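Bench notes, afternoon.
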Amino acid sequence: MQSVLKQVQASTSLSERFRGIRENYIAMADRVANGQDSWEHGDPYEIADWSMIHTPIEAAVWSDLRSMRVNMWPQFPVSRYFVDFACPVKRRAIECDGARYHNAEKDAKRDAEMLELGWLVMRIPGWQCFNEDLHKELRIFLGVKA
């Protein structure tokens, strides 16, 4: 029996939203482990309505990722963190670093912890999230052919 995912709305508090997202990812991981779903072919929109949750810079990168037809998972939990976008199969994380929410020292520590877990992290400064050349850099990082 396939587990049912909860609907996550942008109108709920931030902590409730991320609790719901984490619960949905746990249910999705169970489906993957039981052979009922796949990280490579699943639908990230089952987790949440991302169009109502993404920041503008995340929305720009999400649009690029979707146009490349790579299956990335937004706000993916890795250990005690949420990464902006993740490919759990390849253990690649993409972080969109808006100036308000990021601190270089904390980010370096977080990236080191994720590296210990086998994850590679690509950090994109907020201003670069709207850059046309970003598409090429994303393809290289994710190993996607043009």
